[in-house]
Structure prediction request, 1217 residues.
Amino acid sequence: MATTNSGGVREGIASIFDTDLYKLTMQCAVLKHFPAEHVSYNFTNRTTHMKFNRAAFTWLQNQVKLLGDIRATTDEIDWLGATCPYLGADYLAYLKQYRFKVAEQVDLSFNPVHGSSEGDGQLGEISIRVHGLWVGTILYEIPLLSLCSEAYFKFVDKDWNHNGQMEKAEHKGCQLLESGCSFSEFGSRRRRDYHTHDLVMQGLLQAKKKGEKGGWPGKFTGTSNVHFAKKYGVLPIGTVAHEWTMGIAALSGKYDHANEEALRRWTMTFGRGVLSIALTDTFGTPSFLKAFVKPAPKDGEDATSNSSTEDWSTDSYATIFTGVRQDSGNPLDFIQMMKTFYDGRGIKGSKTIVFSDSLTVDRCIEYKQATEAAGLTPSFGVGTYFTNDFWHLSVNDKSVPMNIVIKLAEVNGKSTVKLSDDRGKNMGPSKLVDEVKHNLGYTDKSLVEGDEAHRWDAAAPWARDMDYLAAFAAAYTPAVRHELRPAGTREQMEEAADGRCRAVYYCTSAGEHVSAVHHWKDPPARREGRSEEDGPRGVVGANVRILLDEDQGGFHEVFLSSSSRECWERIEQYAGSTPTVVLLESQQLQSGKGADEDPAIAFLRSLATDVQGARYQHHVIPFVILPAASKIADIPPSSETATDYLNAGAVETLRSPLKPEDLSRLVGHVKEELRPRADLIGVTMARNLADSIRDTSHPGKPSHRPDKTILPARLRYINSAVQWWGFPAHEMSMDELTCATLFMVEHVLKAPELAEYRISRSDIMGLLLATRRQYKHEREVHYHNWRHAVDVTQSIYIFLVNIGVCPPVESSTRRATERTSLERVLTPLDGLILLVSAIGHDVGHPGVNNAFLVACNHPLAQLYNDKSVLENYHCAAYTQLLRRHWPSLTKIANFRSSMISNILATDMQRHFEYMATLGELKKKHADGKQNLDQWADKDREHARELMMALLMKAADISNVARPFAVSSEWAKVLISEFARQGELEQELGIPTCLFGGPPNKDDVLSAAQSQKGFMNLFGFPLFQGISEIIPSVACSVETLQVNQATWEQKIQEEKERRGSEGKDAPLTFSSVGRNEINKAETMHHRSEPAVMPLPSAPSSPSKRDHNPTAASRRSSKDVALEHMHSFPSSRRGSKDESLTTILVRSHATSNATQPSSAATSADTNVAGEGESRRPPAVPSSPTAGGLRESRSRSRLRGLKFWRKKSGLGGERGSESS
Prediction:
C-alpha cells in the first residue's frame, strides 16, 4: 500500500485499484472462462544498461511485501459496480475478497554485476517471476512495473525533481484539446512515481477546464488507472491486452484460431458493443483481420458454440466492435490498412482507431489528421509521455524512462508467443515463434522506432525539434517498395551503424567465474598499476574496452561471462532485438587439447546450427578469439587450429589481445553481413542530420589515440609518405590514415597567420575521429570512405606545399620557386579551409550516386530538390561536426561559404561550368593583366574562390594522376562500388543509374578503356588547365601522361591475349555506327540547358550569387527517363540529365557488317568521375597534347557511348555516381 516518505510525498501503490482497467476486465473474463489455469509471468528490462542498485532493490522488496496488505474497500467496490456495470456481481464479489499472496506468488531477486562494489550502491539486475492461478496473479503486472520504475528513479537516477510536472501536463493537455484530439491518460505502468502520476492528473484536469471554457474541440475522456479515475471523478478507460489472446492460444495450441476464439469469449463475457475496442497485433494485424470478419455470437449465445452453426448472426466482429487499437507497427500504414479493410467489407459508419504506442503531442496531431482523412475516428491513450517526461537538473539531457515489461510466459506449462506488428516486440521461445510464424504466414516487420531498449531516448527522431528533417526521414517510401518484401524502417536500416550492435563474449581464460554487462558509456575500468595485458583478466578487460570504444569496435553493449549457459541465454535475449556478435575464447593452445575437446568448438557448432536454422530474429555472427602465442614456447596457434573453427562455423578467427587490425576485420565482417536492403540505403541520413543540428553537447576527449598507439618508427614513415605524390593510401590502416591527416593539419597550422585558430592535438584528433565515424566502413562503401577522404586531403596538402601556401616541410629538398600572381591570391587561411574541406567532403556517403537517390525518391533528394543531393548533405553534416569540434573555425566570416563552395565543386555535374570559367580566367590572365593589383576586389575574390574550387576538384579525382601502381588500385575499388550499386538497382528492379550498366569487376579491358577515356575527357583538360594558372601542380600532368600510356599498353595486351586465346570477347567494345552517334548527339542536345552567359570577370560558378537554375532547366528525372527508352542501346536509367560517362555500346544483336572483335574496339571510353552529370557543352579550349582521338568515326565532340552489357558505369569523385 502507499506510504509517505520523509518529504511528505506519497510513494508506492495506493490501492488495489491503482492499476489499469484492462487488468480488471481481463480478470473478470479469466474468472468466467479459465478459473483453474496456472500461469507464470516474467519481468524484462529492455533498457539493459539501466541497472538497479542494492538500495533500489531493498526498497522494492519492502514495497512488494506491502502489496499483501492491500484490499478493495466497500466504497471502491460500490463505485466500480456503478461505474462499470458490465463487470457483473460475481466478479465484484470475487474482487472484494481478492488478496495478493506475495510470499506464494512472487519470486524476487537481485543479481549483482560482477565487479560492482558492495553496499547500497552495488549495481545489478532484478529478476521477477510471478506464478500461480491466472485469475489470482493477473493483477500483479501494473503495480510491479510502476514500483520498479519508482525504485530506479528514487535510488539510481536521482538527478530530477517534481517541479513543473503539473504545468507540463497541463500544457500538453491544452495542445491536444486545442488540436481537437480525444485522449485519455495511460501512464500507470512506467510512471516516474505515484506523486508524478497524481500531478499529471491534476494538470490534465486543469487543461480540461480550460478546454471547456474555451470551447476547444478536443476531449479528455479519462484515465486507464482505476484509482485515479475514482479519485478525480473521471471515467476509467480500457478493454483488453495481448495477454488474453496469448493465453488462449497457448492453451489450445491453435494459433490460427486464437484470435477468433479470444473475440468470441470476450463478446460472450461482456456482450455486444461493450468493451469493444479490439487489439489487433498479438499475432500480427493481418492474422487478426482474418478472424475479425468471422460472424459474431448473438447476445446470450454459448461461448463454446461452433462458429459454423446456422443460428449465428450474420454480423461480423468487425461490425459489432466499435473499433480497434493500434499498439505496434507504423501507425500511418495501420490507418490505411483499416480503411481498406472496412471499405472492402462494406462496413459503414465511422469506426474508431485508438492509438497507444509511444505517443507525443505531435504524433497525436499527425495521426488524427491521417485518421480523419481516411474517414475514421481517432482516439489516443497517452502514457509515458505524460507520467515519465523528465530532464536532468545538472546537465541538459533527458532522464530517460525505463523500458520494462512483465509478460505472460506460460499457461499450464505451455509457453506463450507474441508476434506483434514490430518484430522488436515479439516474444517467446525462438523455436515456437518460428513455428507460429510459419503456421500463420507471418512476415517480420521492422521497428518503427528502432531498438525497444531505446524507445524513449532523447534521441528518438520524432521527439526532436527538427521536425522538418525528421519528416523527410519518416516519409521515405521508394516508388518500388510495393514490389519488395515488407520494408524495414529507419533504425532497422543500418542496425550496426547506429550503435545498436551487441556482443556476447564467452570468456574461458579468466580462471574464475565472470559475469558482467558492459555498456559503451561504462566500459570496464583499467586496472591501476597493471599492464594492459597483465594476466588473463587484464587481457579480457582490454578486449572489452576496445570492443566498446566508439572509434574501434563501436559495440553498444558487451556481455562477458565464463558460463556457457549464461551466454546462451544472453544470445537468446540480444538476438531478439539487435544484431549480435558472439566472441568465443579458445584455450586449445594452452591446454594442449584437440579441437573436439575445446568447449568453444562445441559451443560454436551448436550456435552455427541455430544460425543456419534461422532461429534468431536478428543476425548472430560468431568469431573465435585465439590466444596469443605462449610466452614460454612462443608457439602461435597453427593454421589447422584456425581452420577447425572456421569449419565449425566461425566467420573468422582473431588474436587476443585484440588489436586495431583485428577490430577492423571484425567490424568489416559485421558491416558486410548487415548491409541494408536496397530500399533502405541511407534512410537515416536526414534523421541523423536533424540530430546533429540539435546536438549542443561539448565533445569529450577521445579515448582512442592512434598517434599514441602506433609505433614511432611507423609514425615517421607515415609522416614521410604524406610528402609523396605517390601517397600509398591503400597500404595504411584507418588509424594510420588518421595520423597522416593529423600531421597535415598540424603542419598547415604552423603558419604564423593561423595562430589564433590552433587547437590542441587532442582536439584535432577528436575532430578527425568524429569525422571518420561518419564515413561508412570500407566493407560497406568501397570507395567513398575515410581512405578516399584522406587521399583527397593529401592531394590538397601537396598542392598547398608546392604552391607555398603553407610552411615548407623541414625535410624537403624541393627548391622554393617564385609564386605567380594568381598563386599569391591564396592565403594560409585559404589553405586551411581547403584542407579542412577535403577531410569532410564526402562525409556520410552511402555508396550510391545522386541519380540512385533521385530515382528512389529518397528523403535527401526531396530535401535538396534533386540537385547536388549528396554534396549538399556532406556540407550540412560536416558543418555540424566542425561547429562542435572546432568552433573557432566556424566563426570566420567567409569560412562556411568557402567550404560549401569547395565541396559543391566536387559535383561533376557542374564540371564543364568550371572548365568554362577556368578558360575565362586563363584568357584574362594571358591578356597581360597579370598584375592582380589592377583587378577589382570582386574579380580578385572570384579568382580566389575559383582557384580553391578547382584545386578541390583536382584533388577529388587526383587518383587518376597518381603513379600507376596507386592509381590502378583506386580504379579497382571504384569498380567494386559501382558493381555494388548495380546489385542494389537489380534488387529494386529499377533501370540502372550507372552509365553503361554495372561494371564487370573482372573485365580488365573495360576498366582500362574507361580509365583512359576519363583521363582524356576530364583529367587532362582539368589538370592541364589548372597548371597554366598554377604551375606548381604541373607534376600531375606528367603522371597522367605516363598513366595514359600504361593503360594503352594494358588495352593492347588484353586485346592480344583475347585474340591469341581464340576466345570471343563479349565485353570488348566495338565502334558504334554513325546513326547511333547522331541519335546520341540529339539526345544530348535535348537535355542541355540554355547556354548561360558567363560574366566577364573570372567568377566562380559556385559563387552564391550565381544561379545555375536561372535558365529554364528540365528535371534530371524527367529528361533521363524520357531518353532511357528512346535510345535502344542505352541502359541509362539514372534519372539524371547529365552525360558524364562516355559509353561505347552496340545493340543486343550485332550487325553482321559491324566488327565484333577486340581489334575494332574504341580506344576512348570514359567512366566519369564524380556525380552523374550533363555538361552544358564540351568546351573547345585547348587540351593537353596527349588528348587525341584515334578514330575519327568515334568523335562526338569528345563523347562516345559504351556497349550495352559492359563498362565501368557511373562516375567517380566526391559523389561517385
About this structure: The radius of gyration is 34 Å. The first helix runs from residue 21 to 33.
